[in-house]
Amino acid sequence: MANNNDTEKRLWDAADQLRANSELTAQQYSVPVLGLIFLRYADHKFTVAEKEIAKKQPSGGRRKTGKADYQARGVMFLPEEARYSYLLNLPEGKDIGKAVNAAMKGIEDMNEELKGVLPRTYTRFENDVLVALLKVFSSIQMDIEGDVFGKIYEYFLGKFAASEGKKGGEFFTPTSIVKLIVDVIEPFHGRIYDPACGSGGMFVQSAKFIERHKKRPSSEIMVYGQDKTDETIRLCKMNLAVHGLSGDIKQGNAYYEDIHKSVGKFDFVMANPPFNVNGVDKEKIAKDNRIFYQIHRPDNANYLWIHFFLSALNEKGRAGFVMANSASDARQSELDIRQKMIEDNVVDVMISIGSNFFYTVTLPCTLWFLDKGKRITDRKDKVLFIDARHIYNQIDRAHRDFLPDQIEFISNIVRLYRGEDMETDSGSEKLMKEHFPKGKYRDIDGLCKVVAIKDIKEHGYSLNPGRYVGVAEKEEDKFDFYERLEELNEELEQLNIEARDLEDRISDNVAKLLEQE
Fold it and tell me: What is the mean pLDDT of residues 199-208?
């Protein structure tokens, strides 16, 4: 949604106009359209490989090129009826929907890893709409450098997520949030796991992170995903294929099924789980070995997810995930779990994110970063808190994201805290000089603070950055009503939490006094 590249926008506007002229809902339209982008990508890769193979064939050679020649180059083999040019040039009056369905089946038959993945609902489309869509995507230039198909696919995913509301939010996490998580946990090499993988954005951005650091993702990382919805699994596998990736992606409900036998297995865990889910059957998970502290009492799955993420890490593993703000200060048994995590020295960084970053909820959220490896570093008894609520790019009245230099700036704060070198390829040099002129980490009011665990204990084991970071001084003439209202709302939320805490303590003390009587 944030990427307003002219090509992507032009393609989206054309495809959206065609949907408006059809009788299909956004939900019926989205997956088949993404399937056509996938088909165009597959044809592009096949065409490039075809030319390379032809060049290397000795003149007059008798050996016929086949599926193995393409697979050796990491390219999907396409039968003739699945070629984009074949579909584009079908004669007038031909059933185009049936032909595209046959093309998708042909690709699946030739490429085992895509079995049951590609959409085959094209007979829902009227012939003229489908012909127009094929023409729209044929205009994607074949010679553009870089990941053009991946960017278009991502752009369409984001747009469909926005138009589908809550359901869209279940399969798509805004790209700038994903990029920030990836930049902070730095998945250079190893196994990556997402038990709520949606359309696979965490995996795609991890691959891009590796490419940015001049390495080949296929030789550096292995990705493992799980999602409860079959349709979302298909989106994820298509997304990986469009970005030239493969992974072990399986369907299953993460509350009850640990399909990848995750405990202690992964170097990195990244996720955006559903917030505040009620109704999980706790009897079913009473003996689940992913839950090693305790099962919390409230009917809310937030701390179950935190258990799943932490338990999946190996001894040096890092996790980064999105979480409801309320989890940072949750009371009772959730507080007991949080206390154990803090005292076990696995909580590394907490980042507050402002409102309007997600399509489905306007509320702010918190990014949690766990690091089992920090226990053997000088950071073991500290936590870095960052308040990034006032860092954002306003897309429109209802949506925000981060610009590349803002993502890099926030990530650089973490790098300085860890004693790593800064990165400035995305343009954060000015921001870094302004805030960290000596190139070393320092606490900054309203932005960041490193807090010792003994001080976190004094704050009731809260992991809310707002409790520690403080407020930056503001010039009076830059008063912003909405910003101030947001601050007051956050302050009210914090006071309510403290009031409930006080109420609990008074209640406990009264009970003890009554027992003494």
Answer: 94
